[in-house]
Design a protein that fits this description.
Keywords: Metal-binding, Oxidoreductase, Zinc
CATH class of one domain: Mainly Beta
CATH topology of one domain: Cytochrome C Oxidase, Chain F
Order of helices and strands: HHHHHEEEEE
Strand content: 15-25%
Number of strands: 5
Pfam family, one: COX5B
Strand order of the largest sheet: 1-5-4
Helix content: 25-40%
CATH superfamily of one domain: Cytochrome c oxidase, subunit Vb
GO molecular function: metal ion binding; oxidoreductase activity
Shape: elongated
Oligomer: single chain
Radius of gyration: 39 Å
GO biological process, one term: mitochondrial electron transport, cytochrome c to oxygen
InterPro entries: Cyt_c_oxidase_su5b, Cyt_c_oxidase_su5b_sf
CATH architecture of one domain: Sandwich
Length: 155
C-alpha cells in the first residue's frame, strides 16, 4: 500500500486510474483519502449528480414553411424552383456570338438598362469586357462583332 501512496504523492496531478485504485482499498487508506478531501465522507453530503436536462417537444404543425416567410425575389425564385427552373437568372448559360454584323448583331437579354459582356475574340486568351447600354444601339467589340441589348422581363 505504501507504493500506491508514494506514487500518488510524487505525481504532479493524480491520474484517474491511480485514484480509482486508491479508493477501492479498504482501511487506513480510505481514512487518509477522506482527510485529504479526495473521497466524500460516508453519511455526509453526496457529490452532486448529473444536471437534469429539460426539453420541450416541438410539434411539426407549429413550424412555418419557407414559402410563407419569404417575400420578393426570393419568393419568385422558390416558385420557379418548384416549377423545375434550376437557373432562373440564366447565369450558367453561355451566349454564343451570332453573325455579329451591324445589321444583324448578337442579341443579349437583360432585365436592366445595361449589361457587362465579355467577348472572346479570335486568337486571344482573355475576354474583352465592355458595357452595353439599352438605348445606345449596337456596340462594336475590338474584333468587329456587334452586340445589342434585348429587354426581358425580370424574374
Amino acid at each position: 500500500m505504501s507504493s500506491y501512496i508514494s506514487r500518488w504523492l510524487k505525481a504532479p496531478s493524480a491520474s484517474k486510474r491511480l485514484i480509482s485504485h486508491l479508493t477501492q482499498r479498504e482501511g487506513k487508506l480510505n481514512s487518509l483519502l477522506r482527510r485529504l478531501g479526495l473521497q466524500p465522507q460516508s453519511g455526509g453530503r453526496a457529490a452532486p449528480g448529473p444536471r437534469p436536462i429539460s426539453t420541450t417537444q416541438v410539434q411539426k404543425s407549429v413550424l412555418i414553411d419557407d414559402d410563407e416567410l419569404v417575400t420578393g425575389i426570393q419568393k419568385r425564385e422558390l416558385q420557379l424552383a418548384k416549377q423545375g427552373c434550376t437557373d432562373p437568372w440564366g447565369v450558367g448559360k453561355i451566349i454564343r456570338r451570332g453573325s455579329g454584323r451591324e445589321n444583324d448583331p448578337t442579341v443579349l437579354p437583360s432585365a436592366f438598362d445595361y449589361r457587362l459582356v465579355g467577348c472572346l475574340c479570335l486568337d486571344d486568351r482573355f475576354a474583352k469586357w465592355m458595357w452595353i447600354e439599352k438605348d445606345e444601339g449596337p456596340k462594336r467589340c475590338e474584333c468587329g462583332h456587334y452586340f445589342v441589348l434585348k429587354n426581358v422581363s425580370p424574374i
